[in-house]
Amino acid sequence: MDVLANVSVLARFGHALSDETRARILLALADGSRYPADLADDLGVSRQKLSNHLACLRGCGLVVAAPEGRRTRYELADPTIGQAIADLVTVVLAVDPACCADSASGCC
Fold first, then answer.
1. Is 35 helix (H, G, I), strand (E, B) or coil?
2. How far is CA 56 from the centre of its chain?
3. Start and end of every HTH arsR-type domain (predicted)?
4. Pick the residue with more confidence: 60 or 103?
């Protein structure tokens, strides 16, 4: 894979993680496939909001929809995504608290 392709992949992953709800969805799906209604209830978001975020995550190539009769189950597009998420949450970063205190600083 060339550098530009790698940048594109990381940008899509970063976009997905830039929203708290999408990050929570990915964490939930890292534990296994789920139905949208159950995810919405567990995450405390409306089904419409969840649907919009799932569409974004599908567009980023991180989740896939698996039809099951009249229902649709969502899962990570690849098991390595779950491992990558697990690896990311175990990383300890030394962050200057003043850096990300507001979005005007431009660092986060």
1. coil
2. 9
3. 4-96
4. 60
